[in-house]
Amino acid sequence: MRSMLSGRRLSWTVRGSRIVDGVDVDLGSGEVVALVGPNGAGKSSVLRLLAGEVEPTAGSVELGGAPLGRLGPVERARRRAVMPQDAPMRFSFTAREVVAMARYAQPSRVDDDRAVDGALRRVGIAHLASRTFPSLSGGERALVTLARVLAQETPVLLLDEPTASLDIGHQEQVMAVVRELAYEGAAVLVVLHDLNLAAAHADRVALLAGGRVVHAGPPAETLSAARVGTAFGHPVEILSGPGGTPLIVPARG
Amino acid sequence: MASTLRFASGARSGTGRLLRPVPLLAGLLALLAGAVLLGVGIGAVRIPPGDVLAILLRHAGVDLGVDVDPQQDAILWAIRLPRVVLGALVGAALAVCGAALQGVFRNPLADPGIIGVSTGASLGAVVAIVLGLSGAFFGALQLCAFACGVLAALVVYGLARHDGRTEVVTLLLTGVAVTALVGAAVGFLIARADDEELRDVVFWSLGSLGGATWPLVAATAPFVAVGVAAALRHTRELDLMALGEREAAHLGVDTERVRLRLVIALSLATGAAVAAAGVLAFVGLVVPHLVRLAVGPANRIVVPASCIGGAALLVLADLVARTSVAPTELPLGVVTSLVGGPFFLWLLWRTREAHGGWA
Amino acid sequence: MSRRAAALALPAAFAVATALLATSVPAATPKRPAAEPAPVLPARVVDEDGKTVVVRDVSRIVPLNGDIAETVFTLGLGANVVGVDVSATYPAKRVGPLPKIGYQRTLSAEGILSLRPTVVIGTPLAGPPTVLEQLRTAGVTVVIIPEFKDLDAGARKLRRVGRALGVPGRGERLARQVEGQVALARREVGRTSSKPKVAFLYLRGAQVQMIGGRDSGADALIEAAGGQDVGKGLGIQGFRSLTAESLVAAQPDVILALTAGVESVGGVDGLLRLPGVAQTPAGKNRRIVHYDDLLLLGLGPRTGRALRLLIRGLHPEVR
């Protein structure tokens, strides 16, 4: 398995407080890695460091074998796509126009229509193509943003809570698309709030707490009752779901 | 008309766009052509259309053999035509700068004044008037206004820059602060000014194209061209910046560089426009909005359409300014605000009805 | 009574011209008062910029400033005036119906050209400069005479404008009359026994209160009338805004204002209610004098009359 994106001993300190503390990440082609952890664990910060949006205080990031710092914005955009948590948009672009923006870094415009229409269809929102972005519901916007990320056609995808504002049906649909992309060879790092989604769809799960990686490994290994309970500060029970997938439920009573 | 527009732009009617890009651009070009013809043909001095044509052709090197009054020739060629051309240049500059800055700042309320150019230019003009430089040589006032306008924008940009990066909000707020400071300096000078100087300052700040000459047109045109060219060149980046700073960068836009380039080029264009015609409110705000209303926010269309529309609008506004109370003139800024203010209110109201906020 | 006397003392030519034309609407075709000889043209004058200007036709005149308009009318060429700026208010019956070309500093070239003037005449106050240049380009003769700010201004303007418009003899004669009136008035100052402190206030509503100083246009008159210009004493150049406290501190005996300014604050009673005014000797004794803009500040042909009025306003002892 080829490493597509790696972060070595990544640390990020903001005004004296250490947000990310010595995190190692390795993302190979064809795998889905989920980043989970309680609020404030540093999940999104790790993603921002890997995306090159902020400079790590210490450590380094390599994207497709090249140090991230050496790559210009266009080079980066051809190698990785980033899906943000929120999608603010002030102007009434249509969904299709928003998705087409993903094609900015492409050297040629030839494949644009194919890529954009393909992405819209894959996410199941072809019918929304001519609707204006501000007129869409929160869930629809998230899907359009996912389609935008797909239309970028990059080997690496960094997704920050892509399922946050979606109902169960759409959550499953999105994770199915993510799995499919990995099957086609993409390397996907996805920040997830929902431990069960991580358990069901990720190849590996990295559990973060206090800016450090508590454990990284296959879902069943990482998501043990003890680790999750400690990390989240709340006891959990691990049940066995369909197909042997661990099912995490908070201990109640 | 309002209700029709609102109905047509309802969320269910597809894109909510009233016009296709090509008809819009064609329509605007026709409007500009019409505005220029009217602007050249109508004025306080009546010149028959046939003579207008003969005079224009004669200057283009075609002699129709028509006998034209040399005074009419001078009026048309030395007064009216440079005025119409300057109006088109200034209108294009303001509208394009408004469109592009609204994109750069992701703020629909951005106008060319937002980065301090207008107040900076005002300071330059007031300095020139109060220190008596304006009488020193032709164009001294314009030069002062232009220099101070561009300088103010660079100061804003320089102050907002931190670690080689510029936050949009910081930039906006720095603009507000510098504008206030420069405004204070203007106020101080105005308090020191005597009656005549005061009149000059007020007159200048109300805006006018009355000072149009061919040399002024020639001095303004290159800067306007730089601004328009920069905006046209970066329409795609402007689209992406609507997603936000971070998103645009993720998609491959060198946001810092594009913004610096645009801010410099647009400051030059706005500075030149304000120096040539004074402060003209609402052109930069209203024209891009109108265009977006018609064809949506894609800057590939919005920028050129604003360019043509802004030119047409200002030529028409100036026509009103110089003919409605002839032989006197209305200040051009009064006309643009008179048209722009109510229109802007309508726009606000309509947007609130349709989307519950800015779209 | 004194006003009527002063009016009677106005130049004879002007009286004749007014009598002839006061009731008639300005005619489209220019005509001259029968009593006066026609202007001698072409006239050559040296412009303010040092260039020689040749005036060939004075059949359609546009004076660019109010004082110049008054001077042109005084010279008996009022019938040839085809438009004036908004500061031209005298003679009111004559300039009232004429087309207005805007304010002297914010002129519009094409607007002036639409009046088809043969000559445009003004002081360096007229502008913007581009407009004057455009007028020249369009073939209109533009004459700019210097701006005079002293008591001789009225006479000097009559001479200069008279020479430029081809009536040098008339200009000279009227100038001497004005000089005579000014000299007469100056002699009256000798009979005064007080030297009141005068504050010249420029008012435009309760918000705009400025005090005039050196070169306000009124300073020369105030001093010639045996008063003491408070603003000038404070070292003020032109007009500066004024705080109520400094007005009180200056303790003026008389407040001098323009009639339009006094009206803008609600008359003399309104003026007395402005902050600080009541606390001055002028306010306490209701010693407020006000005159028409052009009469007081124009320094035009009526300078002698203005001076006589002001002397009476400042010195109640003179009868």
Properties at a glance:
heterotrimer, A: 253 residues, alpha/beta, six-stranded mixed β-sheet, four-stranded antiparallel β-sheet, 9 helices, 12 strands, B: 359 residues, mainly alpha, 15 helices
Q: What's this, in brief?
A:
The complex is a heterotrimer of chains A (253), B (359) and C (319). With 253 residues, chain A is an alpha/beta fold. Helix content of chain A is 32%, strand content 29%.
Describe this structure in words.
The complex is a heterotrimer of chains A (253), B (359) and C (319). By secondary structure, chain A is of the alpha/beta class. Chain A has helices spanning 43-51, 73-79, 95-100, 112-122, 138-151, 168-183, 195-201, 219-222, 225-232, and strands spanning 3-14, 17-28, 32-36, 58-63, 66-67, 80-83, 156-160, 187-191, 204-209, 212-217, 236-240, 246-250. In chain A, strands 6-7-8-3-9-10 form a six-stranded mixed β-sheet, with helices on both faces. Chain A has a four-stranded antiparallel β-sheet with strand order 2-1-4-5. In chain A, helix 4 crosses helix 5. The longest helix of chain A is centred in the last third of the chain and has 16 residues, at 168-183. The mean pLDDT of chain A is 92. With 359 residues, chain B is mainly α. Chain B has 15 helices and two strands. Chain B has helices at residues 2-8, 21-41, 49-59, 70-104, 117-130, 140-160, 168-192, 195-205, 214-233, 235-241, 245-250, 255-277, 283-295, 299-323, 332-355, and strands at residues 161-162, 165-166. The longest helix of chain B has 35 residues, at 70-104. The radius of gyration of chain B is 21 Å and the shape is globular. Chain C has 319 residues and is an alpha/beta fold. Chain C is built from 16 helices and eleven strands. In chain C, a hairpin with a 5-residue loop joins strand 1 (43-46) and strand 2. Chain A binds chain B through residues 51, 53, 72-74, 76-78, 81-82, 84, 87-94, 97-98, 101-102, 104-105, 130-132, 134-135, 152, and chain B through 11, 14-16, 106-108, 236-237, 239-240, 242-244, 246-247, 249-255, 292, 296-298, 355, 358-359.
